[in-house]
Amino acid sequence: MISLRWIREFVDLPTEDPEEIEAALVALGIEVEGIEHVDVEFFGVIVARVTRIEQHPDADKLRVVTVDTGSGDHTVVCGAWNFDVGAVVPLAMVGAVLAGGLEVGDRAIRGVRSPGMICSEAELGLGEDASGILVLADDHAPLGADFAATLPYPDVLFDLEVTPNRPDAMSVFGIARDLAAHYDVAVRTPPVAVVETGEPSTARVVIEDPEGCPRFTAREIRGVTIGPSPLWMRLRLRDAGERAISNVVDVTNYVMLEYGQPLHAFDLDRIPDETLVIRRARPGERLQTLDSVMRDLHPDDIVVSGPDEALALAGIMGGEDSEVADDTTRVLLEVAHFDAPRTLLSGKRHGLRTEAVARFERGVDPALPPFVSARAAALMADLSGGAVAPGFIDEYPAPVDPWTVRLPAGEATRLLGVPIGTAQAASLLERLGFSVEGDDPMVVTVPTFRPDVTRPADLVEEIARVYGYDNIPERIPMGTGGGIPDWLERRRTVRAAMVGAGYFETMSYSFIGAADIAALDLGHDDPRRAGVPVRNPLNEEEGLMRTTILPAMLKGIRANQVRNREDVAIFEVGHVYRRSDGVLPDERRTLAFAAAGRVPGPRWAGKRPQVDVFDALGVWEVLAGALGVEYHVEQAALAGFHPGRCAAVVVDGAAIGTVGEVHPVVAERFGVTGRVAAGEIDLEPLLAAVAPVEFRTPSPYPPVVFDLAFDVPESAAAAEVTGAVRDGAGDTLERLVVFDVFSGPPLDEGRKSIAVRLTFRHPQRTLTDEELAPVRDAVAATVADRCGGRLRSG
Fold first, then answer.
1. Which CATH number is 312's domain given?
2. Is the pLDDT of residue 193 over 80?
3. Do 417 and 471 contact (CB within 8 A), yes or no?
4. CA–CA separation, 472 vs 469, rounded Å?
5. Are residues 326 and 347 in the same domain?
6. What is the pTM of this model?
7. What are phi and psi of 753, to 5 degrees?
8. Is residue 422 part of a domain?
9. Helices in 294-409 by DSSP H: which ranges?
10. In terms of domains, do 24 and 47 share one?
11. What is the tens place of the pLDDT at every residue in 427-449?
């Protein structure tokens, strides 16, 4: 959650409309998940100072408090004991309304009149603490001032979802910088002045693992007094979703939210030899973190340690042995840069998803630590009454300098499809903090806070963000090769055919478990048996890249069945991954489908039959027909499917998939009841077999339609027969449909009948029966020659 008031401290926005600002953030590629308007929940409360406290004459736990309202004294009865004479407090006058709707009146408490009350933060809706009175800073506001007007409200909070490639947007300042670029206004970086006094610090820092910790800064703040943070900081942290702890700790969280750089405060007196060592964890080493959990460290973990024992899990969470406590007087402020992948893996390894991890795993700007350290140290000294000691430590073995990317002058126009000149491109990039020299190519210096920008295409994306995606028109590319490419059109056809067959598209994870593969009873030589292991699985039950989508289909059916949805038909177009001899796995695009329950149909049709193997074959026929692909099916025993109720799909002489019924034992292992009609098809060879689309002018003349039935051997495949028919029919054949297949009397044993409906049409004239008579004879002759068939007369 980011506060609009906080953003305005860095940039003067030309609008106050939250919806306009939301639109600007979305245009910049920063998703806004929600907007929350916040304001005070009370009125009639003023600022007052306690001038006298007396014991209540008739109650041991109550006190009679006199306060100065700026225009005279006021006496109320109070049961809190956390304040003394001189304290500045919020006073609710008679008629005031507190959070929750309580109206303050003039009443007698144990015989003492109390016209009003002194309030806790809970009573004002400013926090959860109801144990004592809210004590304000001495200079919070003039006495008698309206307390609500002294608070940072009303305000607007934006709930943002920042993509992993944008570490710079994980802060108030980063969002302000992007908005400044969008509106083409200046962004302010407040000056930071650190006053160092006293003897130089004797703290030391040693980096033993420069790969895990490229930079580590530290400075001492001595003479601190631990106490609560001022109200304005506590409210800022609360609105951002952070819990206020103490002035020192709150500063580290506040500055982290402000600039996106995580910080940590150590109690310097609890660091042995005042020396910090940044290293890898030792085998068997343990650390009790701030959440009171004793953790077994891994040798790949980066730790901040003393000369011997670990004190903190670097970039993730501090340890209890060195935490800031109520008696802390000397603080060692850490502002460091840790390796993003190592921090990410350590956080996942220990199950810790802290605000620090969320930033370090994206890649924090290595140039930030000196500035952020100064900002936090000055703020910490101011709020705790301490002083910054001389001797700023900055260990930076291999400094990271800004890098350059060459951008050809016409690249933005080529990729975006709108004319963007060199001068305009340079101006848009400079608004984002890049510096540009030259014309063609432009030499763009990338600031260190943008580690995701390394290629010309990345720069074009930045140009597009500021130029405005809404300003780029939607149109299909023109010229040679324009329009939707064939491969995309074919994939769309696949999805459209499946939807047309009554199936719903699903999307599942690309991960699978070893148990899922074992449940399919795959053979030892089946390439689907050996999955590609995932180094960092989301969970141990899905530790492999999937080799087949069939388990996901069965799980999808089960998810519907347990919710009492018995009739299910789903499909997915996705990738499967199989082991290969190369560095990368063999990745294939696959179509999988599955159906259970009853065949779709109108209600008046009565009880509908259960899906079976013929429904799976029907879906495949719909798909093959939509793509115009020649095929045949061969009955085979295939792993995971019911023997005798499945077949291999053969296209261009190669098996590309399976259709049929899932073996009931396999279905049961996935918790599925009833028959399951399913299939899994390798899409690449299927789509490669699709003939190129060729436009033909449709004929305006009427068709001639007639049926033929052929008596053929039982072994003859339907695809073989239809292929012979097409070859014999010639160019005027427009459509061929198999509409009947049967065997038995009056046919001879070992014979079957295949009936086809033929549609003929000529592009320039109407065909006559006399013209089609020889065509009919040619079709019969071709079928007889190739398939051993004969034309049936009745």
1. 3.50.40.10
2. yes
3. no
4. 5
5. yes
6. 0.70
7. -115, 130
8. yes
9. 340-349, 355-360, 369-384
10. no
11. 999 999 999 998 889 999 999 99
